[in-house]
Structures are given as C-alpha cells and as structure tokens.
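Lab notebook page, bench 4
Experiment: in silico fold of construct C2
Operator: M.H.
Input chain length: 282 residues
Purpose: comparison with the prior construct
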Amino acid sequence: MILQFKNYTLDFSKKTQVMGILNVTPDSFSDGARYLDKNKAINHAVQMAQDGADIIDIGGESTRPGSIPITIEEELQRVIPVIKELSKQINIPISIDTYKSKVAKAAIDSGASIINDISAFHFDPKMAGLAASTEVPVILMHIKGTPKDMQNNPDYRDLFSEIIDYLNDGIKIALQAGVSKYKIIIDPGIGFGKTFQHNIKIIQNLNRFKRLDKPILIGVSRKAFIGAILDNAPAQERLIGSVSTALICAMNGANILRVHDVKETVQSLKILKAFHEQPSKV
C-alpha cells in the first residue's frame, strides 16, 4: 500500500513507518504539559521530523485510562495553532488524533492530512463522512469502552475475534461513507481496554490482523505494560523497553510504529533492516 501526499510518500512495502507523538495536553500519561506551549510543541515536532519521523500525530485530549473528555473548543485551542504553524515548517504528513469530527475538520483545514480516530468511527457518526469528503487517510483503532472506563476489568470472550469484528465494523462504516479502501489503516489499540496479558498476546500475534488486509499501526511507546515488565519502571524510564517492543512489533508485521522516541526507534529499525537485507554466508 502506498499513500501519496503533496510532498511525501508513505510506502508500506519498503519500510516500517515511524509516527512521532506530539501531545499538546496538560495530562497525558507520559509527557503531559511538556509540550502544551505552542513554540515548544512546534520545535519538538520539527526535531522529530529531522530525526526521521514519517508522520507527526498531534493530539489535544488525553485518552489515558481514567481520563475525562474535554470540550471541542478546548481541544481546538490546543491543536489548531500548532497545526497551522507546523504545516508550514515540515513536509511530512500531520495526523490529527481525535474522535471528534469538528476537531478533525478544523485540523484538516489547517494542514493536517490524516485522521487518527481511537474509536474507529464509533464515537462520532459524522467522522466517516468527513473523512470521505476530504479524501484523507484514516487510522481506525479498537477500544473497549471509553478512555474513562476502558481499564475497569476489560474482559473478552475471544480477544482476537472481538477486536477484528470491531475494526471490521469501522472499516464498513468508512467504506459505506465513501472512504477509499486504500486509505484505511488499522490499530488493535494496545492499552485501550486491554490487560497486561491481552497486550502481550496482541503483539505476539499481530499477523492475525492481516486478514483485514490493511496496514497495521501499533502504539506501545512507554505504556504501562512495559513498565510492569521492567519492575514498575515509570514512563520516563521505559525508553529501552519501548524501542525493544517496537522492534518486536515491526518483526511481527506492524507497518507503522507510533512512538515518543523517534530517533532511537528509527536507528533501531535501520539495524533491523540491515540484518534482514544481508544474506547469511554460513
């Protein structure tokens, strides 16, 4: 699959793409308030682009476990000034991380060119139509419940079939609205209504999502299950664990890695690619 933007091409057949995370929020689990200032946010995004990011994903509302939704107006105030300025400074695509169609529309009007919806078009019935009319690629993620309650004892009869059914339903919503089948990316939603064991199983079996015939995005960066593996390491001490897990995801079939630590992830992927490209002479 190839996605062509104005000055940039994402070719999933050639390499694993890296999406840099930019949270312009006061309360994100890993870097809350760090990039709430517009200039700091823009400078950080430019640096991620220079470090090799293929996409910058901008979010103005924290969707960490237990988070409470903010108003559309507040979300717009956080993301739109950053997107307007950033789109003038970088050539790579900007993704808007939102499940609200009004925010997505304003972001696209301001320079964003991808919609990243944690609800796979289930929360806002107008989102699919907006994606179709603007002809932008979409990322459809699985979530069980809402950010406020998703980690309250998440339980599944069949983990993979339920996630696949939810994503397939999102794909159908998108296609029925007129979104091109070639512009849909899926995300199994690590940490979004998943236990520690659920997360591990999903990563171990990413190939099971290939049946949906869509590029797979996965976000594991600095998440709690990595901290749990590392003897309860806090978010700021999960760099090596995050990069290691990202590489496992890439080896298991992920097409896009959503990460905080772009430079380290890009370098690690280069090492992985070099070993895959060099034939063994033993």
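Observations: Residues 159-177 form the longest helix (19 residues). The chain has one domain: 16-276.
Next step: discuss at group meeting.
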